[in-house]
Amino acid sequence: MTISPPRQDSFLREQLLTTPQAAHKLNISPRTLERYRCRGSGPIFRKMGGRVLYHVDDIRVWVENVACRSTSETAYEVARMLGSRKHGRGP
């Protein structure tokens, strides 16, 4: 018996997440992820027709980029600003 390789489209379906799916994986609300996307502070996304999709590798990279060891490091302030509701708004 020969086992056929998985279809490419099923691989992509497993690797690309919708906004609600990505938000669930990140343990944040879809609205928060949408806000990050509008500000340019969230993970890289793809716009395919009317859909916004996130690749799991891009989510991993984004999570690593906002990782901090201490509240005294610059990365902490940057990550904190990304989550701020005031980020990207005028005075």
Question: Low-confidence spans: pLDDT under 50, at least 5 residues?
Answer: none
Classify the helix fraction into a percent range: 40-55%
Report the CATH architecture. Orthogonal Bundle
Largest sheet: 3 strands, antiparallel
Q: Work out the helix count.
A: 5
Domain Helix-turn-helix: 16-65
Protein name: Helix-turn-helix domain-containing protein
Pfam families: HTH_17
Description:
The chain has 91 residues and is α+β, with helices and mostly antiparallel strands. The chain has a single domain, classed as Multidrug-efflux Transporter Regulator, Chain: A, Domain 2. It contains five helices and three strands, in the order αβααββαα. Helix 2 packs across helix 3. The radius of gyration is 16 Å and the shape is globular. The N and C termini lie far apart (68 Å). 10% of the residues are buried. The model has no long low-confidence stretch (mean pLDDT 83).
SSE topology sketch:
Elements: H1 8-15, E1 16-18, H2 19-26, H3 30-39, E2 46-48, E3 51-55, H4 56-65, H5 74-83
Antiparallel strand pairs: 1-3, 2-3
Helix pairs in contact: 2-3
